[in-house]
Amino acid sequence: MATLLHHIQPWMQKSxxxxxxxxxxxxxxxxxxxxxxxxKRLDAFELRVLERSAPAxxxxxxxxxxxxxxxxxxxxxxxxxxxxxxxxxALADETVLDALFSGTAEEGPAPTHAKGKRHRSxxxx
Length: 125
What we know:
Elements lengths: L1 H50 L7 H20 L11 H12 L24
Organism: Solanum tuberosum
Protein name: Integrase core domain containing protein
């Protein structure tokens, strides 16, 4: 049996190598065909884009829009500017200060330990 395997093994290795090379050539051929198909579609798309005519610009409509914008800008610039007065903050400041110093403000947080309870380390078993 060992003699038979000794004679078959080189043939099997060669067959595997040939099969892998054939598969690789097929894959390369398939990829080349796919790349060519994509390139052909890109070329067709480019031709369609180049064949389109540039959109015509209606100069009279553009000039009318520009004149309308100029009129709007002139109206905005001619509008009287009204200065807003700042709201008085003195009243708010006094309210805050009164709350802080009158003792009516909320007190700090309650202590975290309760009266009469001992820490665990003080307990006896």
